[in-house]
Design a protein that fits this description.
Helices cover about 50% and strands about 15% of the residues. Helix 7 packs parallel to helix 12, helix 11 packs across helix 12 and helix 14 packs across helix 15.
């Protein structure tokens, strides 16, 4: 009787497994005994497990995004003569949308964004008002390293603004006001005398032109004709400046309707191209890019990097599969979410994707 009971317990504990050999990758980390090779180190992420694996998968998805050509697809029976041309098909690439929140421009990732726009490896950028002004302000005065634990009341008494463990002196915003108000004056003049219709993206391009500083990603966006969209243009210091300017010199109009047409058009008119989304953080940039891609029945690739969780129903925390239910990402799309601070993950991702492609074309 006892032997039978033990046998039953034994079979329960040591239940026979499905054979995963050849079906699943073996978990294995990097062996530093083999020397220090950063490319192999990053390559080992995908078999390390947890969020390292998600980062490794994100690297794979972005490389697929960058490598895709129309030539990879079967030629449709009803396509035109141009679409059948091999050279033309090889020239049609994936259209890459990049979105990020303002805090990431406050951080050192701003220099990574500048690199991507400078080398024209992303074609559409979406950010918040802070993602615009912080780039410009850094051309006028620096942001400093602080500490998460610095007391708010103490910092306020010193005229220092805290963004996480970063410090922005309030004087920086005073310099920003001195710089931008004359530009708004000129824009108002052009509106009244030349009938210029300003939109957020046109305003941003103008600021990129005026800053004329190669450290600025907005300068490179202006120079390389990469559109930067920001439907929340008034939600930040830029909004403060527009507010004060409206009393000093009333009348400047910024039309957001023209920009929603333009933004949605970036996806609708992608034509034969696939589209890919790389979104750092959540909120407005994430939804704005996803919603535009809904207009073409979804993006073909999506990489999300953020620390938000989905259990409160927020769009910020939503996984890619939720966007599939809305038609913002195709059911056949290659997707991954990396649950990580983007300041850690994104430089590694860029090193193993965009930077390698740029290096090949410039050497």
């Amino acid at each position: 009787m006892e032997d039978g009971k033990i046998a039953s317990v034994h079979s329960t504990v040591f239940k026979e497994s499905e054979n995963l050999q050849g079906k699943r990758s073996e978990i294995k980390g990097y062996d530093f005994n083999e020397g220090l090779d950063y490319s192999r180190l990053f390559g080992s992420m995908i078999t390390t497990g947890f969020q390292a694996t998600n980062l490794g998968e994100a690297i794979e998805v972005v490389n697929q995004m960058l490598d895709w050509r129309l030539a990879d697809e079967a030629v449709a029976d009803d396509c035109g003569e141009e679409e059948r041309d091999g050279k033309f098909r090889e020239s049609v690439k994936c259209k890459v949308f990049l979105g990020f929140t303002s805090n990431l421009v406050s951080s050192g990732l701003r220099d990574v964004f500048r690199y991507l726009v400078e080398h024209r490896v992303v074609e559409v950028v979406v950010t918040t008002a802070g993602g615009i002004e912080e780039d410009l302000i850094k051309c006028l005065a620096p942001t400093y390293k602080g500490d998460f634990a610095l007391a708010g009341a103490y910092l306020r008494s010193k005229g220092l603004n805290r963004i996480g463990n970063l410090l922005v002196p309030n004087d920086n915003y005073c310099k920003f006001e001195d710089w931008i108000i004359p530009i708004f004056d000129q824009m108002l003049k052009e509106q009244n005398e030349q009938n210029v219709l300003w939109t957020p993206s046109k305003l941003i391009a103008r600021l990129g032109k005026e800053i004329n500083d190669e450290r600025s990603y907005l300068y490179w966006a202006y120079k390389n004709n990469v559109p930067v969209y920001c439907p929340s243009i008034t939600d930040g210091s830029l909004g403060d400046m527009l507010y004060f300017h409206s009393f000093r010199s009333p009348g400047l109009v910024v039309d957001i309707v023209q920009d929603i047409r333009a933004m949605n058009g970036e996806a609708v008119h992608a034509g034969l191209r696939k589209t890919g989304m790389i979104i750092l953080g959540g909120g407005l940039p994430k939804h704005h890019i996803c919603n535009a891609n809904m207009m073409r029945n979804g993006a073909d690739y999506a990489v999300f990097i953020n620390t938000a969780q989905e259990y409160d129903g927020s769009d910020s925390g939503a996984h890619p599969d939720e966007a599939v239910s809305w038609g913002k990402i195709r059911g056949s799309a290659k997707t991954v979410k990396v649950h990580c601070d983007a300041t850690i993950a994104f430089p590694f991702l860029v090193a193993e994707t965009f930077a390698k492609k740029v290096s090949k074309t410039t050497t």
